[in-house]
Every structure is written in structure tokens, then in C-alpha cells.
Amino acid sequence: MHKILIILTLIFSINFAQKKPKKIPHEFTTIINLETTPVKYQGQTGTCWAFATSSFWESELMRLGKSGYDISEMYIARRAYEMKAENYIRFHGKTQFDEGGQAHDVLAVIKKYGFVPQTVYPEIRNENGKLNHREAVSVMKGILNGVLKNSSKTISGNWKKVISATLDIYFGEVPEKFVYNGKEYTPQSFAKESGLNPDDYIEITSYTHHPFYEKFVLEVPDNWMYAGYYNVPLDDLMAIIDYALENGYTVDWDGDTGRDNFYRKKGYAVVPVDDKQSGDEPEVEKFITQEMRQRAFDNFDVTDDHLMHITGLAKNQKGTKFYYTKNSWGTKDKKFGGFWYMSESYVRLKTVAIMVHKNAVPPGIRKKLGI
Predict the structure, then answer these.
(1) Distances (CA, A) of 300 to 101, 188, 259, 263
(2) Helix residue ranges per DSSP H, 48-132
(3) What count of other Cβ atoms lies within 10 Å of the Cβ of residue 7?
(4) Residue pLDDT, tens place only, 94-109
(5) Greatest distance between any 2 Cα atoms in the chain
(6) Which of 20, 284, 321, 333 could pair with 344 as two cysteines, CB 3.0-4.6 Å apart?
(7) Which pLDDT belongs to residue 322?
(8) Residue 364 has pLDDT above 80, yes or no
(9) pLDDT for res 194
(10) 332 near 42, Cβ under 8 Å?
(11) Distance between terminal CA atoms of the chain?
(12) Is the confidence at residue 346, as pLDDT, over 50?
């Protein structure tokens, strides 16, 4: 009987050990943790650019002592679709019209149309209770293509009314005026009162197929505005991110999370030397050079598939630097409450571009850029 109990105990212990969840190898210690608003969920939409940059804008307001802003991402998205639609027609359909976008899209909307609080322009979900824009985009693109293919070969301008009506259905009617905290605003006056100036923000990248310390139009599909980005060496790009965080500025991050080593269940991202490492301790990572970064961009191994918001800095038990990054995939079942830790190697390789306040750039680099 005694032997049977011992055997059963061993079997139970083995089974329990097999079912025990694997420990994450990194023990993170916070170095910088800047103020930001709560994590949101973008649903089944390609509007990460609106969520990340609205979060970035909210943190900029906090930096100036103006807390309490909760920007409507759907107002931003809806207005951007109006601008995308006009661009699509003017380019005869030979440009991007889809859900994706860039950080500067948000600033372009704010500059032209202002912004509104979430309570004034809430999101509209589909009949399944999901935030999903696939049907809306398909319908609008069909309308635009129909306009371009009409047999009369002329365009009346009525298409704008049709697109606007379609956006009203899927996103909601835009308020000309609204009352917030007992005061009446237009979207433009609300943005003006916030005190932030879109012209104070710049986008920066790092690629060798264009000269450094000059601007160029970044060749990614979602840059439908053909906006210019400042180009700096990779070490300067990383220095800008660090300088920004050390001086109280958060960073709007555009990069690639859809390929390798962005561990969705573990909540961190690295570039390991060996993908078959045990996982019981921090991965040994590759050192990313400018050449490796360029090669990954040229062969489409790194694309601009996601935007997030870097709000802090951390290190693991080995002293490796990680960037504490706010995502827009909600908080449910997320390891770090909707935040991710991206290693320095990951950021060196996977960053397509960043947006920062001009004053978040180190003075020496700012001088070279002429800003």
C-alpha cells in the first residue's frame, strides 16, 4: 500500500509539473514610467495609428499638466477617411485607400478638423458587438472605384456626399458643436484650447537609401499622404528615443510586430541569436547594425504593420534595456495589462519610424537636422 501511494504521488507530481505554466525568463525593473491614459482596444480594425497617436497626444497634454483628455479615435479615423477618399480620387485610384495609416495622419486631422472627446463621438460596433471596419472600407472603396469608372468620364462631386453619408452610418454623424464640462466647443476650438501645436511634432526614421540629416518621403504603403521623414543614423535614432524618455517625452512608435519574436502571450519582444533557446533565462540577442536594418526593410522582412506608444524604460536582470510600450489590443489576458516590453535590439531592427516633439530631440542632432 505504501509503495502504491509513493507511485501515485510521483505521477501526480509529474502531471502537475507538466501543466505548470512556463515562467517568463525576464525579470523587469522599471527605470522610467511616464504618465499615460488607460489601455484601449482597437478591435478588429486597422486603426492602431489612431489609437497610438491619440494616446501619444494625451500624454503630451499630461506633460503640460492638462490631464483628463480622452480623445475619440473614431472621430480621427472618420475624418482621415474623408481625406483618404479625396486623395484616392485625385490620384485616379493609384494610391492607398485602406484601414492603415501613419502618426502624421492624426496630426493632419487635428490641424484641419480638430478633435473631440470620446464621450462626444463614441465608437459604433457592428451587430456582433465588435469594432470592425472591413465592411465600411469595402463599401467606400467600391463607391470610389465606381466614381472613377463611370461612363461619362466626368466627376460631379456628388461622391463626397455619398462617402459622407456612408461614414455617418458606420461611424456616426460629426458634431458641429458640443458641450463639454459645461462649455460649448467646436472640434477646432476644442483642439485650440488644448494648447498643443501639430507643427511642433516631427517623424524620424533611419535608412541608408537616402542621405542622412535630410528629409525624404518614406516608401511604405500607409504613407498615403507622402509625408516627409527626417533621416538619421541608427545610433542617433536610438539616442532620440532615450533622450525623449529621459526628459519626460513619450514616443509614438511605428514598426513591425507581425513577424518574428513579438511574443503575444509572454508580453515581450526580442531578437534572439538562437530561436531554440530554452526559454528559462533571458535570450542572448543579436546586435543590430545599420546594414541589418536596411536589409530587413529592403526585403520586406520589416514592414510598418503596427503603431504603439513608448511610455517608459526598463531593464531585465541581465541589464538589457527594454522599452515599456503601450499597445491597443486591450487588457484581457495580456501579460502586462496591455503593455509590452521591447528590447533594444528589437527596437533597433523593427522600428520603421517614430514621432516626437521637436524638443525631445537632443540639441546636437536637432542642429544637424536644422530644426
Answers:
(1) 18, 39, 11, 20
(2) 48-63, 73-90, 103-113
(3) 10
(4) 999 999 999 999 999 9
(5) 93
(6) 321
(7) 98
(8) yes
(9) 95
(10) no
(11) 82
(12) yes
pLDDT of 283-327, one tens digit each? 999 999 999 999 999 999 999 999 999 999 999 999 999 999 999
- Cα–Cα dist 299/176, whole Å: 46
> What b/e sequence results for 319-353 when a residue is b if at least 16 CB atoms lie within 10 Å of its CB, and e otherwise?
ebbbbbbbbbbeeeebebebbbbbbbbbbbbbbbb
- Closest to 201 in 3D by CA, of 25, 60, 305: 60
Summarize the confidence of residues 70-86 as an average pLDDT: 98
- pLDDT, mean over the chain: 92
Residues 192-224 have pLDDT tens digits of: 999 999 999 999 999 999 999 999 999 999 999
C-alpha neighbours within 13 Å on the C-beta side of residue 14: 6
Nearest in space to 203 (alpha carbons), one of 39, 352, 18: 352
Structure-block grid coordinates of residue 89: 480620387
* CA-to-CA dists, residue 356 to 5, 159, 192, 205, angstroms: 64, 36, 20, 11
Q: How confident is the model at residue 275 (pLDDT cuts 50, 70, 90)?
A: confident
Contact 16, 49 (CB under 8 A): no
Kindly list the structural domains of the chain, giving each domain's residue range(s) and its CATH number in brackets, ordered by start.
23-369 (3.90.70.10)
Residue type, 222: D
272: confidence class by pLDDT, cuts 50, 70, 90: very high
**Among 226, 176, 230, 178, residue whose Cα is nearest residue 204:** 230
Q: List CB contacts of 187: < 8 A, sequence separation 6 or more.
A: 75, 113, 114, 115, 116, 174, 175
CA atoms within 13 A on the CB side of 5: 2
CA-based Rg of the chain, rounded to a whole angstrom?
Answer: 23
Taking the CA atoms of 348, 223, 81 and 133 in sequence, report the sign of the dihedral they define: negative
Pairing of strands 306-315, 321-326: antiparallel
- Partners of 343 in beta bridges: 322
The helix or strand, by DSSP H or E, that contains position 167, with its residue range, turns out to be: helix 159-171
